[in-house]
Each structure stands twice: as structure tokens, then as C-alpha cells.
UniProtKB/TrEMBL annotation:
This is Histidine--tRNA ligase. InterPro entries: aa-tRNA-synth_II (IPR006195), aa-tRNA-synth_II/BPL/LPL (IPR045864), Anticodon-bd (IPR004154), Anticodon-bd_dom_sf (IPR036621), His-tRNA-ligase (IPR015807), HisRS-like_core (IPR041715), HisRS/HisZ (IPR004516), HisRS_anticodon (IPR033656). It comes from the Bacteria. It comes from Tepidibacillus fermentans. Keywords: Aminoacyl-tRNA synthetase, ATP-binding, Cytoplasm, Ligase, Nucleotide-binding, Protein biosynthesis. One of its GO terms (biological process) is histidyl-tRNA aminoacylation. Its EC number is 6.1.1.21. It holds the Pfam family HGTP_anticodon. Belongs to the class-II aminoacyl-tRNA synthetase family. Residues 1-314 form the Aminoacyl-transfer RNA synthetases class-II family profile domain. It is found in: Cytoplasm. GO terms for cellular component: cytoplasm.
Length: 420
């Protein structure tokens, strides 16, 4: 049998891993600038957490979760998204006792059984942030601005921010009633998913990508017409903060997101010039989720994106995300005497934070020099038996080809000084 990766998964090989590392390191740098702390949660949770947290009527819970029964008879699910797990940890470990809002970020694999396509996999790596403990509209604006700064710092431009308020339990029932009444007359023309949504989660119909459904709902009432005073004021303040920061946005009253826990602010960031990739990230406020999962009535907001999708967007823009991936020093050795001391010298160099490599294949000097070129070495140390006897090493600067003999005992301080 010829083994291959399962459908909807992928191996991330060295060159691609460099781009992923660029995305992760850029994200962590931005998050820490905004005072976010990292959290890591298990990749599987009790199934009920997602049923209650994400929503039983969502596509994720109904169609896309990887659920299994363990040997103890417990129903467990590979996490399909990160927010529910973070909120569960927030409640379980009583993080709400902190006097300040809790700012967290996470990076890890998620799992959804859906049709694999470009930028969308069954196992994907999600980067996300959550702020728990404040309902201040300024937090909404901060989260949105941080997401935009993050993508800009990665090199993505021409971003379009779409925002909406999806209301709250006070005003949403009024909109639901109006929407259901409007759509009942065309129910049989809706797609099968939307026919089901009409009874259980009608607002999701506004977000359907089916062209027929989009046409049938183009004149449907939207939530912005029915917002309560609290939600309307909150939304106006979020927009005011965005205006102050010079962040442009488009109001999209049909933007509802795909998860049941969203309240008030919902947003998406879309790239205008990367074609099919489209939406880079999405997020919003979830003021009832903590209570739904068993905690106190604590407000929250966050966003998330998949590394796969951002990597695709960066590649389409010609951004390879290469960090300094070359080695500082490549150690060319010729003969047994030289080889016998090479590991000690390499180890000493690495202890000083110097990226050092050597030949392990017994190749000739010419092949070793080619290896140094491939590894983009800044310097090459050449040590043969003759140099060994003289307690010297040849140090070559690969940027200009200049080389000189250096006493072996001086090589580490010299390289440390040059590479600072």
C-alpha cells in the first residue's frame, strides 16, 4: 500500500514551514505589542462544549465536527474552532478573577469535515485572539485595528474591513420574526440548507453563498433596522473609534458570521487583490458565551484566521516571508585531525547563539563549499590537517571572498564580534 496524507490534510515541508513561521512570529510580535498572553488548550474537548458554545444549529456542529466515543463511553470532539476552548479554560481556571480584562492568543490545529479547497483544509492551523471581561466599544476597535495592523505588517495591502452589528437577545427576536415572515413565501425556492435554517437560525440565510438564495434575500429585512438602543449606541461608538484611528470600513448589514455566539459587533477583513482567497479573517463580540458555558456573565470579543489561507494570500502577492534562514558559519573540515575537533568548536559557537553547520557526509572541499553556498553561510571556517598542526583556521567572508588565517582559540570571539 502506498501511504499518502488523508484527504483534506497536508504536509508542511521546509520552504512552506518558513512562511508559516513568518506568519506565526509576526502574529506573536503584534499580539505581545498589544499585551496579549498565549494560551494552549487540548485539541479535543467534550462534544457538548461545542454544541452549547458554537451552536447546535450551525453547519460546524451539524455537519463538520470530528466526533468520537472514547473507551470510557465519553463523546469527544476534535476542536473545530478555538474560542469555545479558550472560554472553557477561562471559566475552569477562574481567570475572571483578574481585575483587568483577560487578553489571550492561541495558535494550533483545528479540524472540520468539509470539502477541501484552496485555503480550506480539514485540518488547519488557526491563529486567534480573545479579550474577556470588557464590553467597552474601544476594545472592539482595538481588536479590529490589531488585526489590520497584523496583516499590513505581513505585507498585505488593499484590505477592506466590513462591519455590522448582529444585535443581542433583546433586539434579535424582533428581526427574526420579520425575516421569517418575509421569507416564508419563497421557502420552497431556497436551498435545502436555508430551508432548514428558516425554522432554526434564519439570520444565517443572509450569509448564504447560493446565488438563488442571495437573490431571494436581497430585499429581506436586516438587523440594523431593528437594533435596540444599547446595540445601536455600541455600534456607533465602535465606528467612532475606528474613525479616530483613520481605519476605513464598509457597513455590511448582511454580515452575520457562521457561529451562534456572536452578539453586537461582527467583522471581516477581506483582501481586494488576491482573488479567490477573499476573506482573511473574521471575528466579533460574544457577550453571552461565557455564561452559556457555565461561567459568569462576562463579555468577550475576538477574531481568528487560518495560517493556510494567509500563506496562500502571501504567496499570491509574491511575499515569501523568509526570515534569516541561512547559517552564520559553515565549518569545512579536511582530514581526521580537523574532524576530531570540529564538534567541540561547533558546540562552542552554538553556545554563543551562532548558527553553525558542518559537513557530515565526508565530502571533498569543493562539495563542502557548495553546501555552504546553499545554506547561505555568512562565513566559512576551513580546517585541514595542516591548519590543525599550526593551530590556525582559515576564515572566509562569503560576502566578498576575503579570507585570512586566525588562531583557533580566537575564532569564537572573532565570529561573535562580527555577527553581533
Amino acid at each position: 500500500m502506498k501511504f499518502q496524507v488523508p484527504r483534506g490534510t497536508a504536509d508542511v515541508l521546509a520552504e512552506e514551514a518558513e512562511l508559516w513561521d513568518y506568519i506565526e512570529q509576526t502574529s506573536k510580535g503584534i499580539f505581545k505589542r498589544y499585551n496579549y498572553k498565549e494560551i494552549r488548550t487540548p485539541i479535543f474537548e467534550h462534544t457538548e462544549l461545542f454544541q452549547r458554545g458554537v451552536g447546535e444549529t450551525t453547519d460546524i456542529v451539524e455537519k463538520e465536527m470530528y466526533t468520537f466515543t472514547d473507551r470510557g463511553g465519553r463523546s469527544l470532539t476534535l476542536r473545530p474552532e478555538g474560542t469555545a476552548s479558550v472560554v472553557r479554560a477561562f471559566v475552569e481556571h477562574k481567570l475572571y478573577a483578574n481585575p483587568d480584562p483577560t487578553k489571550l492568543f492561541y495558535i494550533g490545529p483545528m479540524f472540520r469535515y468539509e470539502r477541501p479547497q484552496s485555503g480550506r483544509m480539514r485540518q488547519f492551523t488557526q491563529v486567534g485572539v480573545e479579550v474577556l471581561g470588557s464590553s467597552d466599544p474601544a476594545v472592539d476597535a482595538e481588536v479590529i485595528s490589531m488585526a489590520i495592523r497584523l496583516f499590513e505588517e505581513m505585507g498585505l495591502r488593499n484590505l477592506r474591513l466590513e462591519i455590522n452589528s448582529v444585535g443581542c437577545p433583546v433586539c434579535r427576536p424582533i428581526h427574526r420574526e420579520k425575516l421569517v415572515t418575509h421569507l416564508h413565501g419563497v421557502k420552497e425556492h431556497l436551498c435545502k440548507d436555508c430551508q432548514s435554517r428558516l425554522e432554526r437560525n434564519p439570520m444565517r440565510i443572509l450569509d448564504c453563498k447560493n446565488e438563488t438564495c442571495q437573490e431571494l434575500t436581497k430585499d429581506a429585512p436586516t438587523i440594523d433596522q431593528y437594533l435596540c438602543d444599547n446595540c445601536r449606541t455600541h455600534h456607533q461608538k465602535v465606528k467612532s473609534y475606528l474613525d479616530q484611528m483613520g481605519i476605513q470600513y464598509v457597513e455590511n448589514p448582511r454580515l452575520v458570521r457562521g457561529l451562534d455566539y456572536y452578539t453586537q459587533t461582527a467583522f471581516e477583513i477581506i483582501s481586494e487583490d488576491i482573488g479567490a482567497v477573499g476573506t482573511l479573517c473574521g471575528g466579533g463580540r460574544y457577550n453571552g458565551l461565557v455564561a452559556e458555558i457555565g461561567g459568569n456573565d462576562v463579555p468577550g470579543i475576538g477574531f481568528a484566521f487560518s495560517i493556510e489561507r494567509i500563506a496562500l494570500a502571501l504567496k499570491q502577492k509574491g511575499i515569501d516571508g523568509k526570515l534569516d534562514t541561512g547559517v552564520d558559519v559553515y565549518f569545512v573540515t579536511i582530514g581526521e585531525k580537523a574532524d576530531s575537533v570540529s564538534m567541540k568548536i561547533l558546540d562552542d559557537l552554538r553556545k554563543q547563539g551562532i548558527k553553525a553547520e558542518k559537513d557530515y557526509l565526508g565530502r571533498k572541499i569543493k562539495a563542502q563549499m557548495k553546501a555552504a553556498d546553499r545554506l547561505q553561510a555568512k562565513y566559512v571556517m576551513i580546517l585541514g590537517d595542516d591548519e590543525f598542526d599550526r593551530e590556525q583556521v582559515v576564515l572566509r567572508d562569503m560576502s566578498n571572498g576575503e579570507q585570512r588565517d586566525v588562531p583557533i582559540y580566537e575564532i569564537i570571539p572573532i565570529l561573535t564580534s562580527k555577527l553581533k
